[in-house]
Structures are given as structure tokens and as C-alpha cells.
Amino acid sequence: MIRTVVIDSDTLTRYGLSMLAGAHPDVEVVGETGSAVEAAALVERARPDVVVVDVELADGNGLPLVRALRDRYADLGIVVMTSLDTDDVLFRALDHGASAFVVKTAPVIEVLGAIRHAAVAATSFTATGLLDALTRRREQETKFALSPRERQVLTLLRDGLSIPEIAGTIHISKSTAKTYVARLYDKLGASSRAQALVTALRTGLINYEPTPGS
């Protein structure tokens, strides 16, 4: 029996997963909540084998919750289940320590497969379309061909640093920092910071989370 906790703001999703579990004798929903705040106490109390977490919760992003659960429970299976079917969300789920990624429109067998995988292989990641997503990421990296320094500058742009602040952070002159930013804009086909960041986020060159301490 796979003891499962569902953390999803959508009542119908929680009900649907409970009904799904009831139709399959190897899965049992032992708790549910729509709140990230309530999730930690629920997991501590219910001691599940697997948690199913939505990316978009009523009181916050579900991915920091995924990271917190992974850091606390090394053997806990964590399924990220979301309506946001994008490569960026998939890779963020992987980076935050999820065991599986599945979209809410997936067939029942795929949802069950994600839960069963998470129950027996908490630290290995699975997702339908993972190979295709990896291929697209490699293609994007090859297309833009950013140098390590350009990637560093791009991350600092994401974190909101000005050109003088970028120069000070990585110990280069302001004119050199301007050159790196201009080069980034050219490679990304952008004319502004906002356009550059949108392209970088969409193509997976950066993620949404700021670097620690920023």
C-alpha cells in the first residue's frame, strides 16, 4: 500500500486523486490539503510514502515546499503534478528534488505510474517527455552559446542588479559589464532587460528563483 498525501489547491483535483486511489488497491490517500503552510505538519503527522504537490498553491509556489520536503525526508517520494506543462517547470521540479513530474491532463495510468515510481525510487526522476525536453534544452544552449561569464551576467540581470552592481559583483569594469550585457541582448535577440529575461526564462537558460542571498 502506497500511503499518499495530496497537496493541491484545487478541491476537484484532490477529490479526483482520492477517487483514483480508491479504485486501485495499492494506493491510499491518507491526507490532503490545499495549503503549503499546512503541508509540513500534515506530512509529519500522516507519514506518507508519497506526496503529490501542485506547483501553484493558494498560499504560494509549491516548488519551495518540494525542496523543503526533500531536504527533510530523503526517502519521501515527491510527485509534482501541475497544469503548467512547460520545460521550465519540468526542470525546476527536477532541480528542487522531485521524484516525478506529471501534468494534470495526463492519462490515469501515467499519474499512477508517477506515484508508483516515486514510492520505490524517490531520488530518481521520471517524467513523460523528459528526453524531448533535454534535447530541446541542448538545442537552445547550442543556439545561444553563452560563455560562463555571460551566464553569470545573465543571472545577475535576473536578480535585478544594475550594470555598476554587476561590475562590482564580478570584479570587472563598468564598460566591460556593459559589453557583456550588450552581447547578451544581441544573442537573445532582445532590446531590453525584460525581453532578454523573458527569452532566457522561456528557453531554460535561467530559472525563476533568485540565487541565495540575493
UniProtKB/TrEMBL annotation:
Keyword Signal appears in the UniProt entry: no
Residues with 4-aspartylphosphate modification: D54
Keywords: DNA-binding, Phosphoprotein, Transcription, Transcription regulation
Domain Response regulatory positions: 3-119
One of the GO biological process terms: phosphorelay signal transduction system
Sample GO molecular function, one term: DNA binding
Keyword Transcription regulation in annotation: yes
HTH luxR-type domain mapped to chain residues: 139-204
Highest taxon of source: Bacteria
PANTHER family the record matches: DNA-BINDING TRANSCRIPTIONAL ACTIVATOR DEVR_DOSR
Protein name as annotated: DNA-binding response regulator
Organism: Actinokineospora globicatena
Organism taxonomic ancestry: Bacteria, Bacillati, Actinomycetota, Actinomycetes, Pseudonocardiales
